[in-house]
Amino acid sequence: MSNRIVIDLKFDPVAVRQALVTAFPDFEVINMANPANRERDLSGIAYAVCWNPDHDLFHRMPDLKVIFSGGAGVDKILAIPTLPKHVPIVRFVDDTLTNRMSEYVVLQCLTHLRQVSTYAAMQKRCEWRELEQPEAADLSVGIMGMGVLGQDAARKLQVMGFNVIGWSRTPKAIPGIETFDADGLDDFLGKTDILVGLLPLTAETTGIYNRTLFEKLRQGGALGKPVFINAGRGKSQVTADVIAAIRDGVLLAASLDVFEEEPLPASHPVWGEERIILTPHAAAASDERALFRLVERQIARFEAGEPLENVVNRTIGY
Ligand SMILES: NC(=O)c1ccc[n+]([C@@H]2O[C@H](COP(=O)([O-])OP(=O)(O)OC[C@H]3O[C@@H](n4cnc5c(N)ncnc54)[C@H](OP(=O)(O)O)[C@@H]3O)[C@@H](O)[C@H]2O)c1
After folding, report:
1. What is the rounded average pLDDT of the residues 151-163?
2. Residues with a known catalytic role
3. Which residue among 93, 169, 262 has the greatest number of ligand 1 atoms within 8 angstroms of its CB, and so is best to mutate?
4. What residues contact 89, with CB distance under 8 A and at least 6 apart?
5. What is the arrangement of strands in the sheet containing 28-31, beginning at the earlier edge strand?
6. Ligand 1 pocket check: which of 90, 104, 168, 258 to mutate, most ligand atoms within 8 Å of Cβ?
7. What is the mean pLDDT of residues 167-186?
8. Which of 109, 127, 132, 178 has the highest local Cβ count within 10 Å?
9. Neighbouring C-alpha atoms within 13 Å toward the C-beta of 210
10. How is residue 44 annotated by DSSP?
């Protein structure tokens, strides 16, 4: 095995190049963003760091030992037909990413609580009027997906005073948070005023945020109607149902960071929805330097015969 590592990150190429200047001092780095590397022989290489990798990448790496995901989600990697069956996939789990996601979640919850969009519209009309002001403690934020990101967001929402509840596939015991497992979904939804989606994309979670689910959220809470925030994956959400639910008064508003099709086409009606705060899959970016540090640590563990951390469970799909 040669000391070479393949990088196939469809991130900002300049940021990747800069982070690579000091990363992997013991390796020859083959950055697939460099056209000179497109036809390189990749046999004999044990490690690949990828995000949206080229579909023939794994086919070209017959000696691959570990795949490192450039992001927390691995749905795109798992969907690649040539993905080798027995090579472990390590997720990107790091405070830099977790903190960014919690910033996004807390920001969106506070934005809806403090009616920022309504005040912005009033400013345009030079309208001076104070709106009714519920407190965070008057609302329950229900988080779907109580993993690394969901649990950190929950803790930070609690600091702001929100009542937080959580839903996950398997039961959890988290101090101060009422939790529900897969069977408790309807009870969870019935207690939720602001729904936060932080689920990975799997067969079970595809299309899960749909009209039927929105209709089960609590009506008549401190904001009057429920709010939906999604920073998980776009294919978990039926965007047409979000729009319809807002127009019909099932939902008050939404914050959407992710969409079924990305980049979101300019013709999509969601762009024009006043009650939807839209961001371009920007809730929590991966910091390239932190990613490469994590990969270096995991390679050191692997080569010392220690177990890799944050390995994807292929059977459950995340
Ligand atoms: N928008 C962005 O910028 C951005 C950035 C980073 C990540 N993400 C997304 O955020 C997702 C979550 O990341 P993470 O690190 O928190 O993942 P994680 O630690 O693996 O947590 C996933 C959570 O979802 C739950 N879950 C999965 N399938 C479920 C199902 N069918 N029913 C109920 N609960 C289910 C898991 O339940 P258990 O606890 O029972 O296993 C777990 O609590 C990623 O997969 C990615 O798609 C988005």
Report:
1. 98
2. 233, 281
3. 169
4. 66, 67, 68, 69, 74, 77, 78, 311, 312, 314
5. 28-31, 4-9, 47-51, 66-69, 89-90
6. 168
7. 97
8. 109
9. 9
10. T
Residue 78 CA, distance from chain mean position: 16
Q: Where are the domains of the chain?
A: 4-92+286-303, 95-278
Fold entry, domain 4-92+286-303: Rossmann fold (3.40.50)
Which residue shows structure tokens 């919850």?
Answer: 109
This prediction's pTM: 0.98
* pLDDT band per the 50, 70, 90 thresholds, residue 2: low
Q: Which residue has the tokens 């897969």?
A: 182
Per-residue pLDDT tens over the stretch 223-245: 999 999 999 999 999 999 999 99
CATH 3.40.366.10 matches 95-278: no
Whether 238 and 207 have beta carbons less than 8 Å apart is answered as yes
Q: Which two tokens stand for residue 170?
A: 């398997």
71 CA: nearest ligand 1 atom: 6
| Average pLDDT for 110-138 | 98
Question: What Cα–Cα distance (Å) separates residue 46 from each residue in 31, 79, 91, 103, 224?
Answer: 15, 21, 17, 36, 55
Q: Do domains 4-92+286-303 and 95-278 have the same CATH topology?
A: yes
Q: Percent of the chain beyond pLDDT 70?
A: 99
Does ligand 1 come within 6 angstroms of the Cβ of 168? yes
If you write DSSP's letter for every residue of 240-305 in order, what string do you get?
A: HHHHHHHHTTS-SEEEE---SSSSPPTT-GGGG-TTEEE-SS-SSPPPHHHHHHHHHHHHHHHHTT
Name which residue sits closest to atom 19 of ligand 1, judged by CA.
147
